[in-house]
Design a protein that fits this description.
The chain is an alpha+beta fold. The protein folds into 4 domains: about 1-145 and about 230-250, Nucleotidyltransferase, domain 5 (2-Layer Sandwich), CATH 3.30.420; about 150-230, ATPase, nucleotide binding domain (Nucleotidyltransferase, domain 5); about 260-330, no CATH class; about 340-415, Gyrase A, domain 2 (2-Layer Sandwich), CATH 3.30.1360.100. The chain is about 35% helix and about 30% strand. The protein contains 8 helices and 17 strands. The protein has helices at about 80-90, 120-130, 185-195, 215-220, 255-305, 315-330, 340-350, 375-390; strands spanning about 10-15, 25-30, 35-40, 55-60, 65-70, 100-110, 110-120, 140, 150-160, 160-165, 170-175, 200-205, 225-230, 355-365, 365-375, 390-400, 405-415. Strands 3-2-1-4-8 form a 5-stranded mixed sheet, with no helix packed on it. It has a 5-stranded mixed sheet with strand order 11-10-9-12-13. α5 (about 255-305) runs parallel beside α6 (about 315-330). It is elongated. The model is unreliable at about 1-5 and about 255 (pLDDT under 50).
C-alpha cells in the first residue's frame, strides 16, 4: 500500500542564515503520522535520530538566500524555460547566470513562480545533508512557511530579520532594527503595492519580538497591523511548495538507488543472456545446416532411385510408397498387403473372449475390422492385442446396442504409409 502524505511522518528543518559554515543550530519539527508534533534544535544534523524510511524530509531555507520572482514565458518546454529564465530576470540578478540555480513552478497560462539561489550555496546544503545521511524531498524558501490569505500580508521576525510574505508566490526578507522600528524596505513595498493593484488590507505579524509597537507600525504603514501568537512552524502546511531541488539537484528516487545497486548484477545477467542467446543461435544454425544437408541427400537419393518422379514433396514417404509398389509388382508380399496384414491380425482377433468378427475390409494398405463384443473394454483389449502383435491400430467407432458393443478398428502394418 502506498502511503499518502498525511499517513506518513514529516520532518521539517529550518536552516539559519549562513548554514552550514556558521555552526548555528538547526531547528526541527517532527510531525508524526499520529498527529503528534515534537520539536528541538541540533548543532549538527548527525545528532538527529535517523527518521523512518517513509518519513518525508522538508527543509525551509533562509529567505535571504533565494530571490523570488514571477515571469511569463510563451513556452512549456523545460529546456527552453531553462534557457530563457536568466534573460527574463537579468535586470534583477546580482550574479552571473552561470553561478545561479533557477527553480520554478508553473502557475498556468505561461506564468511561472521562480526562485533564484546561488548554485554554490545550494550545493553546500545538498552536500551537508548527504554527509548526514538525510535525503530531503523538498528544499523550500522559508517565506512560504508563513500563513497567507488574500489581501493580508504575513510577517515574522527574529534575530534582526523580518520575513514578509506578500502573496501565494512572493515575499522578501529585510532587516529588523533593534528598536523594532518599521523597516524602510517594508514601507517601500507597501507604497509600491498601493501604486499597483495588490495592496494589502492589513498585516499579520506572527510571533513578534518584544518591543513591537503595533500602533506605531499601523500609523506608519497606514494599515492595521495585528500581532498573531501562532507557532506556524509546527503546522504541516497544505500549501504547494516551490522546491529548489530541480534539474541536477533533484532528489534521487529510492527506486533509482536500488536499481543502481543492482546494476552490476544486471550487467552480469545481461551478459549471460546474450552469451546463451549466441550459443543457442549457433547451435540452431548448425542443426539447421545438418538438416538441410540431410534433406538434400534424401532428395538426391530419391531422384537417383526413381528418376521418373517429377514432383518430390516428402522423399521419405514417397520412397516408402514406391518401394511398396515395387515389392507388390514383383509378386513379393509386403507388410501392408492384405494377406500379411490379416495373418498378423488374426491371432489378436481370436484372443478377444466373447466376441466375433462381423466384417472385414481392406483398402489403401489398411485393414478395417468390425467386431461385436460384450463391452467397451473388449474393444480396447482388441486394439491393445493388435498393437502387441506389431501393428498400428486405431478405434474408429464403438457403439452399444442391446447389451453388445459393435466396434470398428483400422489396422495398418508398422512402417506402412
Amino acid at each position: 500500500m502506498r502511503l499518502r502524505p498525511r499517513d506518513r511522518a514529516l520532518l521539517s528543518l529550518r536552516l539559519p542564515l549562513g548554514w552550514p559554515e556558521g555552526g548555528l543550530p538547526v531547528a526541527w519539527w517532527l510531525h508524526e503520522a499520529s498527529g503528534a508534533v515534537r520539536r528541538g534544535e541540533v548543532s549538527r544534523l548527525d545528532e538527529l535520530s535517523p527518521p523512518p524510511h517513509s518519513t518525508r524530509v522538508r527543509v525551509w531555507t533562509p529567505a535571504a538566500e533565494t530571490m523570488l520572482a514571477q515571469v511569463t514565458l510563451p513556452t512549456k518546454s523545460r529546456a527552453r524555460i531553462a534557457q530563457a529564465l536568466p534573460y527574463a530576470l537579468e535586470d534583477q540578478l546580482l550574479g552571473e547566470p552561470d553561478s545561479l540555480h533557477f527553480a520554478y513552478r508553473s502557475l498556468g497560462g505561461g506564468s511561472l513562480a521562480v526562485g533564484v539561489t546561488e548554485r554554490a550555496r545550494l550545493q553546500a546544503w545538498v552536500d551537508a545533508f548527504k554527509a548526514s545521511g538525510l535525503q530531503p524531498t523538498v528544499l523550500c524558501p522559508e517565506v512560504f512557511a508563513l500563513p497567507w490569505n488574500d489581501s493580508v500580508w504575513s510577517l515574522t521576525g527574529d534575530g534582526g530579520e523580518l520575513i514578509v510574505r506578500t502573496g501565494a508566490w512572493s515575499g522578501f526578507p529585510c532587516d529588523l532594527s533593534q528598536g523594532a522600528d518599521v523597516p524602510e524596505a517594508l514601507v517601500i513595498a507597501i507604497r509600491g503595492a498601493r501604486a499597483g493593484t495588490a495592496a494589502p488590507e492589513s498585516l499579520s505579524f506572527y510571533n513578534p519580538p518584544a518591543g513591537i509597537d503595533f500602533g506605531r507600525w499601523s500609523e506608519t504603514l497606514g494599515l492595521p497591523v495585528r500581532g498573531m501568537e501562532q507557532d506556524f512552524w509546527a503546522q504541516e502546511s497544505d500549501s504547494p511548495e516551490l522546491s529548489l531541488l530541480q534539474n541536477e539537484f533533484s532528489p534521487t528516487n529510492p527506486l533509482h538507488q536500488t536499481l543502481g545497486a543492482l546494476r552490476p548484477a544486471g550487467v552480469i545477467l545481461l551478459a549471460w543472456f546474450l552469451i546463451s542467446l549466441g550459443v543457442n543461435i549457433g547451435t540452431w544454425w548448425h542443426l539447421k545446416r545438418v538438416e538441410l544437408a540431410q534433406r538434400r541427400e534424401m532428395y538426391e537419393l530419391f531422384r537417383h532411385s526413381f528418376p521418373d518422379a517429377h514432383v518430390i514433396v516428402d522423399p521419405a514417404l514417397q520412397m516408402a510408397r514406391q518401394l511398396a509398389a515395387l515389392q507388390s509388382g514383383s509378386g513379393q508380399p509386403v507388410p501392408g498387403d492384405f494377406l500379411p496384414l490379416l495373418a498378423d491380425a488374426a491371432p489378436a482377433i481370436q484372443s478377444v473372449p466373447g466376441g466375433h468378427l462381423s466384417n472385414l475390409s481392406y483398402s489403401g494398405s489398411s485393414l478395417t475390422i468390425d467386431v461385436r463384443v460384450t463391452d467397451y473394454q473388449a474393444v480396447e483389449a482388441l486394439r491393445s492385442a493388435l498393437v502387441a502383435h506389431g501393428l498400428r491400430a486405431k478405434v474408429l467407432d464403438a457403439t452399444s446396442h442391446r447389451g453388445v458393443v459393435d466396434g470398428r478398428i483400422r489396422v495398418k502394418a508398422e512402417g506402412s504409409p
